[in-house]
Amino acid sequence: MCLGIPGEIVEILPGHTDLAKVDVSGVRRAINVGLLENERLQPGDWILIHVGFALSKIDEEEARAALDFLEGIGQAYDDELAALRGSSIDRG
Which residues, 6+ apart, have CB-to-CB distance to 35 below 8 Å? Predict the structure, then answer.
């Protein structure tokens, strides 16, 4: 099962305006934010992530509600976090 999960932007990666370091429940990864090029993204913003891409900007209240729900469903959320831990986006 693949889920859209909320993450908080920690930083926009220097020299890569389409990548942001995002914190998802303590897991930090580079996420492609290129689909949100018309949004003004900055550290502290929340985004909805699916397979390494930011799909939309969301507010903190919506992010907290989604995280509470996801944590409540158990294994599917744990699996998604495990997949996130094992992933990376490299620029080469």
Answer: 53, 54, 55
> What stretches of 1-92 adopt beta strand conformation (E)?
5-12, 19-24, 27-32, 46-50, 53-58
Cα 51 to chain centroid, rounded: 9
* pTM of the full structure: 0.78
Digit-coded pLDDT (tens) for 32-55: 999 999 999 999 999 999 888 999
Tokens of 11: 């930083």
* Distance, CA of 50 to CA of 20 (rounded, Å): 14
* Assigned token pair, 20: 């942001």
